[in-house]
Amino acid sequence: MIHSTIENDLDFAKPTTQLNALIVTADKRFQAVIKRALNEATTTLFDAAWATNFDAGVNNLADHHYDVCLIDYCLGLRTGIDLLYEAAQNGWQVSTIMLFDTVDQQLFRAAEQAGAFDCLVKDQISPQLLERSIRWATAHRREQLLYDHYAALEQRVSEQASELAQLKSISADELTRRQELERHVEESLSRRARQVQTSTEIAQKIANTPKLDELFHQIVSLVQQQFGYYHAHVYTVEGDYLVMQEGTGNVAQMMKAVNHKIPLAAAKSLIARAAKTGQPVLITDVTQEPSWLPNRLLPETKSEIAVPIKLGDVVLGVLDVQNDTVGSLDPEDQILLMGLCGQIAVAINNRRLEARREEAEENQRKLIQELDAFAHTIGYTLRDPVSLIIGYTELLKAQAGLPDNLQEYLNAIARNGLKMSHIIDELQVLTGVRRARVIPKPLSMLRIVAEVQQRLAHLIQEYEAKVVISEYWPTALGHKPWVEEVLAYYLSNAIKYGGQPPRVHIGATAQSDGMIRFWVRDNGPGFTSDEQAQLFTEFAHLSQRRVTEYSLGLSIVKRIVTKLGGQVGVESDGIPGEGSIFTFTLPRA
Fold first, then answer.
1. Are residues 298 and 188 in the same domain?
2. pTM of the prediction?
3. What domain range includes position 323?
C-alpha cells in the first residue's frame, strides 16, 4: 500500500508546524523520555502515535501516513531493521530514525542500509537533539522526493519519446516540431536535475559552515555561481527591519557599507512582502509589477524571486534572487529555492543556538572560576578564626570551672566549630578536585584501606565499631590521595551514622565491563528513595533522622570518582538495621 503520491509528497516539503510521528518501542521508560522530548520541541508540534511491538508497528504503517517514524532496534523476536525492510517491501514511504541502547557502528550501518535516515542512542537523546534529528531526516526525505519527482518526469519523457518513435507516418513538419519539443523537454529536465544536485551540494556546504557571516557569504556566492543568477542577496529580520547581511559583487559591498535595510512595513518591496506573508514572491517581469521597488545599483534586473527563510511559522529572513532576462525565473526556480531556504533556516537557527551555547559555557566557566577562587579565599580566611574558637572553647572547658549548663554550651560551640572546620576542609578539597589534572595510576587498594582504617582509628574506638575488610582487592586505576578521601568519607559516615554499635564491611568486586566496584556496607537505618536521589547532590539538605547535614562531602566524592572515570551509587531499602551500601567504580588496571 503506497501512502502518498509524488505530488502529495512534494506538498510535504512546504514548511509546516505539525508532524505526524509514529514511535515503535516496548521500552516504557524510554516512551516517557520521547514524550517529554516531543512536548519540549520548540519549533514543531508533534501528533504522536505509539506501537509497542513489531506487529503493531506494521499495522500502523499500513493504515496511516506518518511524516517521521522513531523505531527501537529491540522489538522482541524481531528488530527495528526487520521493520524497515517490511516497510520498504510494501512501499511505505516515511522518514525513519533508528534508536539503539548503545553505540554500535556495525548496527548503525545496517540500519542506514535498510533505509534509516539517522541513528540515535537512547541515553544521549535530548529534546534539542531529537528535534534536530527529526528536522534533518524530514529534510533529507524532501531531497529524495525531489529526485523521485524528476525521475518520474524523466520516465514520462522516455515514454513520450517511445510514442514519438512509433509515429513515423506523420508529416515531416510535425515530426520536426515534436523532435524539437522532445529536445527542449530533455534539456529542461537535464537542467533541473543539475539544479537539484547543485542545491543538495549547496545545502551540504552550508551545513558545514561554522559562523553566521561565513554562512551568509556562502549562501549568496553559491546560489549565484551555481544557478547563474544576475544577483543574490540575503536579509535577516531584525526587529521592524530586514537587514541585508550579504550579497554578490561590488553592489552588495556598497549596500553593506551603508547598512542597507528595508522596513517590514514597506509597501513597495517584494522582499518585505515575502517576509510579512511568509510566502515566496515570484515576478517574471518586474516592469509590469506595480509594487516592485527598483534598485538603481541593479539596473539590469528584469525578473525577481523573494523566498522567505522560515523555521516553522517564524520568518528568520529572506533570500532574494534577481535575473537580467524577462521570464528567466519560473515556478521551478521557486521550488528549488524554497527547499534551499528550509536548509538555510535550520543552519541559521543552529548557528545562533551554538553561539548562545558557547556564550553560556563561557559564562559558566567564568562563574566556576570565581566560585573556586571565592571558596579558596573563604577557606583560608576562616580556617584560623575557627581554629581559635575551637581552641579557646577547649581551654574554657578545661580551666574555667563553669557550671554544667555552661559546659554544655561550650560543648555545643566546640561541636559546631569542628563542623565548620570540616566544611571548610571539604570546600578546599572540592576546589582542588575541580582544578586538578591527574594521571590515573595502578592503586594498591589494600594499602589504602589500611591507611584509612588507621586514620580513623580514634573514630572506630569512639563508636566501638567493628570493621570487616575483604581479602579480594583487584588493581584499579586512580589517584591515591583522592581515592583515600573517598574511602575515608564512606567509612566515617558508616561509623557515625550506622547501627549501634556500627558493623561495617568493606570490599571490591570486578565487573564484566572492565570496571572495579568498591563498596562499604553499614547496618544503619538506610535511606528512602527520595533521600537516595539527593545524597550526591551539592548542598541538598536531608532532614531525615540519620542525616541532618548538607551532602557536600558526598558531592565531593561524586566529583572525584567522576573525574577518575567512574561512577558513585547507593543501595538501600530504607529498613532500619539493614543499612546501606555505598559504592564507587574505577577502571581496572
1. yes
2. 0.39
3. 175-350
